[in-house]
From TrEMBL:
Its main location: cytoplasm. This is Deoxyribose-phosphate aldolase. One of its GO terms (molecular function) is deoxyribose-phosphate aldolase activity. Its EC number is 4.1.2.4. The gene is deoC. It holds the Pfam family DeoC. It catalyses: 2-deoxy-D-ribose 5-phosphate = D-glyceraldehyde 3-phosphate + acetaldehyde.
């Protein structure tokens, strides 16, 4: 796969303006990225701007904490799909995962998968808050719930992706699910390391810099 198609070109900051979202989409079209990843408010706008391209619109659900009700996550998902989202990056219920309430975690993911109506669902585990054993179990639950991807991080917690986390996730899900690395992927070396560890997709705000093989001060 070509490098550009690994990248979800991302802008999730609270102060993102329409002008910045427009630039994001223009950059995504120029480099033919896999998707743009934006908050749900911007989905319809991005779908309109990207209508004449094969760049997908990806959005986040239950972001960034994952502690919303399952019904709220499902509604947010169905609404985003109606607005034109083709990929959903949901945050797992991290508290329930830490409490070992596995049925609740699985049901939460399954509800979003159902609401996504066949569209790609990536489940953000927030690996920096989990032990290795919890990461493994979370991956297993996501596979059982029908997720398309497991994803490392929101980029809004204590750290982002590590190659070690990516490898552990890939070793766990094998061919049953894909892996997305997000958070802190700022240069080509970072990206190459994540892909070597098993990442199938990269979430980053530094997509343009990555394509230009330049380091970025930004990140995700």
């Amino acid at each position: 796969m070509k490098m550009n198609k690994y990248i979800d070109h991302t802008l999730l900051k609270a102060d993102a303006t329409q002008d910045k979202i427009q630039v994001l989409c223009e950059e995504a079209k120029k480099y033919d990225f896999a998707s743009v990843c934006v908050n749900t408010y911007w989905v319809a706008y991005c779908a309109k701007l990207l209508n004449d391209s094969d760049v997908k619109v990806c959005t986040v659900v239950g972001f960034p904490l994952g502690a919303m009700s399952t019904k709220a996550k499902a509604f947010e998902t169905s609404n985003a799909v109606a607005d034109g989202a083709e990929e959903i990056d949901m945050v797992m219920n991290i508290g329930e995962m830490k409490a070992h309430h596995y049925d609740a975690v699985r049901d939460d993911v399954a509800a979003v998968v159902k609401a996504a109506d066949g569209h790609c669902v990536k489940v953000i585990l927030e690996t920096c808050l989990l032990s290795e054993e919890e990461i493994v179990k979370a991956c297993q639950l996501c596979v059982e719930a029908g997720a398309t991807f497991v994803k490392t991080s929101t980029g809004f917690s204590t750290r982002g992706a590590t190659p070690e986390d990516v490898k552990l996730m890939k070793d766990t899900v094998k061919d049953n699910c894909k892996v997305k690395a997000a958070g802190g992927v700022r240069c080509r070396a970072d990206m190459d390391e994540m892909i070597a560890a098993g990442a199938d997709r990269i979430g980053t705000s530094a997509g343009v810099q990555l394509m230009q093989n330049e380091a970025s001060e930004g990140g995700y």
